[in-house]
Amino acid sequence: MPIxxxxxxxxxxxxxxxEVVGQYVSLTRRSSNLFGLCPxxxxxxxxxxxxxxxxxxxxxxxHKGGGVVNFIMEIESLSFRDAVIFxxxxxxxxxxxxxxxxxxxxxxxxxxxxxxxxxxxYHEQLxxxxxxxxxxxxxxxxxxxxxxxRFGLGYAPDGWNGLIDAMTAQGFTKEELLAAxxxxxxxxxxxxxxxxxxxVMFPIIDVRGNVIAFGGRVLDDSTPxxxxxxxxxxxxxxxxxxALNIAKKSKADYIILTEGYMDxxxxxxxxxxxxxxxxxxxxxxxxxxxxxxYTNKLILTYDSxxxxxxxxxxxxxxLEKAGIAVKVLRMQGAKDPDEFLKKYGADAFHSLLNKSxxxxxxxxxxxxxxxxxxxxxxxxxFAREAAxxxxxxxxxxxxxxxxRRAAEAAGxxxxxxxxxxxxxxxKMARAKRIRQERENTAVSQMHQPKERTxxxxxxxxxxxxxxxxxxxxxxxxxxxRVDLDESLxxxxxxxxxxxxxxxxxxxxxxxxxxxxxxxxxxxxxxxxSSVLQKRGDLISDQAIDDYIRVIREEHAKSNMxxxxxxxxxxxxxxxx
Length: 576
Ligand SMILES: [Zn+2]
Prior knowledge:
Blueprint: H1 5-14, H2 17-22, E1 28-30, E2 33-36, E3 48-51, E4 56-59, E5 65-66, H3 68-75, H4 80-90, H5 103-125, H6 132-140, H7 145-150, E6 154-156, H8 162-169, H9 174-179, E7 183-185, E8 192-194, E9 199-205, E10 211-218, E11 226-228, E12 241-242, H10 244-247, E13 255-258, H11 261-269, E14 275-278, H12 285-292, E15 297-301, H13 306-321, E16 325-328, H14 337-354, E17 357-358, H15 359-370, H16 376-391, H17 396-410, H18 414-441, H19 443-447, H20 459-474, H21 492-506, H22 522-533, H23 541-575
Parallel strand pairs: 13-14, 13-15, 15-16
Antiparallel strand pairs: 1-2, 2-3, 3-4, 4-5, 6-9, 7-8, 9-10, 10-11, 12-14, 16-17
Helix pairs in contact: 3-4, 11-14, 15-16, 16-17, 16-18, 17-18, 20-21, 20-23
């Protein structure tokens, strides 16, 4: 059942945006608006604004925006309905639909309970006689009992329904086991069986401490070596990092990112409690956002093989963009941190950490490995590519240092590299200027919505439509003198918003983007928020009349041109 508009009004009124946002972001007042660091992208100067009078937020950096419900949807990763329930609980309001608990959050709670019970089950199996192969495996990997307990490691016995039997005995259903990604259904027979069999088990725990999924590793060399839970209602591998629940409490001011959970666990055992691992996927934007909440220093320790190096090259710019200072740890004498620690111990790893390379060093060393500097041709190619890398460095001192280093490596004069680098810099600057000019000439481009899915075809009309909405949101009584129809708007979204706000006004509700409800997508709501937070002209009858006139004019023009085109087409047809 959809949530009624009056319920939504009440909900929005009882959850002032500045209070709700204030629980996540520290806000400071600047004139009538509040500003803070955006929780949705990483930044050092606040571009996230909250307008209490309008009940909206908008980020000038990442262009997210909306009302209080949108904010909760985004920050808590909830559906519209669940966000409404979240806010209802916050304001001690009765839940929508006469208090019937929401189906999705109920399901979510059930799956979390099931994963927790399953983690306990797997952990207990480890102590039983049939857990011997798993105990032997952990012993071989030199994991201490303390580590096994700390990470809640376990064993999925070799059988088809050990977990299913244990969990159904506790009142969970097979459907729930399927929904949690813990069981699979046979395609033809329809029988349900355990997904994880004869594997050592690694519970995956979110930052709040909930078990949300599992990773399972085979005990021998069979494949697949690692198996993760499928994505479920509660588990999204793009948004979660293994061991972050522990690493976030670490005293270290950096985080070590590893490729696999065995590496992360080994690091923790050796005292590096700031290690986390991505879960069988390369680093995602969501991971970077998550990391940036806890640290601004990261050390990458991907494997030294080609796949690991490619992953490193992909990750560097993403992290850099988020304002995270990245260093790359180059493993020597071992293929991964786990192996390194066993061979050389914690102290050696510490000094390796200290020697880890920053981005420039990393790229330069990668180049050195790429070229054979005993061959003249390759030496030239090296110098050219190194100059490119150096040219991109923003700092002059840094450029100088790396010019010398690259020159030394290639056995050429620093001057030669410097000249190449300057050439490359000039070329880059020129390209940048041309880019900028192109942007400037398209002035209207500036007013194009940041949302790519929304385009303004008729800029003159669109600006008038925006202005009109701004005025109406500020002073809804003006609806009395505006007699436009939605169809006259050149931007369908603005037309729809106009009608929805008009309906709010006519029903005696609060006129606000914050309570538009589900009829508008997140992108649409964000765009409307961006429009309404703009500083509109002072309200005057003249301005309103101008906007209405422009909208009518442009609409008439567009109609006429269609007719003209039709007439022209008919004329052509008659001539032939
Ligand atoms: Zn932002």
